[in-house]
Amino acid sequence: MTTATTHHVPYFSQWESASLVPEFVSGTTAAAADPLWASSGADTAEEYAFWAPRMCGMACLRMALGYFGHPVPASVPLVREALAAGAYVRDGDQVQGLIYAPFAAWVATRWGLFAESRPQLSVEQVDAEVARGRLVLLSVHRSIRTLDLEPAQRGGHLVLAVGSNANHIAIHNPSGFPEISQQFHQVPRADLGRFFAGRGVVLGHAQ
Fold first, then answer.
1. CATH code of the domain covering residue 85
2. Three-class SS state of 95
3. The Peptidase C39-like domain covers which part of the protein (predicted)?
4. Which of 39, 42, 98, 186 sits CB 3.0–4.6 Å from 168 for a disulfide?
5. Euclidean distance between CA atoms 28 and 36, whole angstroms
6. What is the DSSP letter of 166?
7. Which residues are within 8 A (CB) of 124 and not within 5 positions of it... i.e. 6 or more apart?
8. Which residues of the chain carry a pLDDT beneath 50?
9. How high is the pLDDT of residue 2?
């Protein structure tokens, strides 16, 4: 039986203006037009616009850092550190990432947290880690924000599992929609499998 657990984790969107996420993902507002872009720590609106759609992993990390009592860096400087650590690989306008093993090694070294890449991860293991006081980055399809009945694939986007109970997994979704699927989004366990690729990264206090 799954024990009901919810961790009170702060929320960060991968865009600075979380209220505008529906407009950013639909393309009706360009990321470079985000009125709060400078809060990201980017040097230009264009730098921010390049990274914002790709920063789901950094948003999850910022949430975890806040929860575990660390100062929360701005998002774009964090991306630059992740690049230097090999957690992202950029080739022109193409970015490979988040690469779990170097990401976990960087997090463990940089902040002294428990960080473990899990290329194979079951929902039951997510339950167990959450019950232990840990948070779990889950690779899901981005359409989990609306619980799409037919997602194009599994994986490709990162969310943070912050709770679980017998019927749901609670996630913070960096590209979720306001008042619908950003904070503590209750995803029915029966639906998660459509989106979840069965891999992720576990974060926790140092052992």
1. 3.90.70.10
2. strand
3. 9-174
4. 186
5. 17
6. S
7. none
8. none
9. 66
